[in-house]
Specification:
Helix content: over 70%
Structural class: mainly alpha
Radius of gyration: 18 Å
Number of domains: 2
Number of strands: 0
Strand content: under 5%
Order of helices and strands: HHHHHHHHHHH
Largest sheet: none
Number of helices: 11
């Protein structure tokens, strides 16, 4: 079970350690050391939001600004949760952590998973989620240490998170026979970008995607 979960998460490990290192370096350069890197990756564990959080910390953002920004950055999880409601139902003691640890990459690993032969599906999902978070924590701590020892320009390092999103999208497109969710996301995002502009498109696009995927899901349920 544990071995199967580990093998499943190896691709995420390669990305999370690198991305975590980038986060740790940026955080250290902003004046926050290894304890901050470990704590944020343990208790916040929201990759892109942690990158944004560095700017909030250094800029002295208010609580209200932080809350609104967090909702905007993590709005995509609204439609992740729709497809995972049935999967996490009845997961018992694992459920709180499974909900907390549902990142983009963990979602991509678990949304199409098949039950292991011994039937311990919830335990398997727990270890997949746990391994992924451990990779992120390790990368963050390494990055903080590197930041204290090596001085170099960090310009553009935050793009690594975007690169991982693209890689995850590509993997899902190649492995999945159903491209409706991916096309829905792309079309909805581009449409809202044109209508609302670069600064206000995020929440409308997430709401539109959530609405459309909900409609598609209900339609598929009726056809079955």
């Amino acid at each position: 079970m544990i071995r199967k979960a580990f093998y499943k998460t190896i691709p995420v490990m390669a990305g999370y350690i690198v991305l975590g290192i980038g986060f740790g370096i940026l955080l250290h350069n902003a004046g926050y050391g290894i304890v901050w890197a470990f704590a944020m990756s343990t208790f916040i564990y929201a990759g892109s939001m942690q990158y944004v959080g560095i700017g909030l910390l250094t800029g002295g953002a208010s609580v209200i600004t932080t809350i609104i920004t967090t909702i905007m950055v993590n709005a995509r999880h609204l439609f992740y949760s729709i497809s995972m409601i049935g999967k996490y139902k009845g997961s018992g003691k694992y459920k709180p952590y499974l909900i907390f640890a549902l990142t983009d990459e963990t979602y991509s690993l678990l949304c199409d998973d098949e039950e292991p032969s011994n039937g311990s599906l919830n335990r398997y999902r727990f270890f997949v989620s746990l391994f992924d978070q451990c990779y992120w924590i390790i990368g963050s701590v390494i990055g903080s240490l590197l930041g204290s020892m090596i001085r170099f320009s960090t310009a553009g390092i935050e793009f690594s998170m975007t690169a991982l999103f693209i890689a995850s999208f590509t993997q899902q497109w190649v492995e999945s026979d159903n491209h409706i969710p991916a096309i829905t996301g792309l079309v909805s995002t581009v449409l809202c970008l044109v209508i609302f502009g670069t600064e206000k498109f995020l929440i409308p696009s997430m709401l539109l995607i959530t609405l459309l995927l909900t409609v598609f899901r209900k339609k598929e349920g009726m056809e079955k």
